[in-house]
Amino acid sequence: MDLNLHGYRVLITAGGAGLGRAMAEAFLCEGADVHICDIDQGALDSFCFEGRSEKIGTLTKSLLDVTDEQGVKSLFDDLKVNFNGLDVLVNNAGTAGQTGQLENLDYGAWQKCISVNIDSQFLFSREAIPVMKKQKSGAIFNLSSTGGLFGFPYRAPYAAAKWAVVGITKTMAMELGPFGIRVNAVAPGSVSGLRMDRVIEASEQTQDVSADVVREQFEKQTSMRTFVSPEDIANMILFASSTKGNKISGQILTVDGHTEGLSVS
186 pLDDT exceeds 60? Predict the structure, then answer.
């Protein structure tokens, strides 16, 4: 299926590695021009995408803390010149936050988790909306999680932030629909990769069980008994970005193998 994304202008936060990188590569392969920002200079430096067809889009990169208000404004000043518009914003940046019982959590760690996961989405969306309103089109994807649908034992900061993503997404979709702008939340399940490995390690220490037991717990929480891949998430976003998904808005797009609930054995 040709999604006709050639020439799309796409901005992806935390696009240097993991899920963000998979999204960037998928858009580039469809011919979109992609700008990624990331707080990790090493991840940016290592992302050198070489396509295998003439359709491949262009990749640009910048170092940025997504909670830096002035830095976000400066990025959009540059994009207005270099992109002359914006078709897709993927608010992908996030952090797992502290793991533990609520009464043992550190307030500073709580604030950082909330800021990276939800404040960044506010900052980037606030800058992108006037651009998209002017062109009367655009699609915004805010990364939530199944942890933002069910709650998540020992992960209160993360669950709280990801629930907030659903609220801001629903509100934005209502406000922006009349301007031809679609807004959706994407709720991945357990995504295989280094971030999930770190979550499993933290849960292992909190629960005093082996990593294999924790991994099995996560797998058993889904009907399909599986983790999802970064490419699974990227494929959903590509389709919903395209004209073939042009009536999808205000939704929580879960890609999770059907989560039945998040619990601790």
Answer: yes
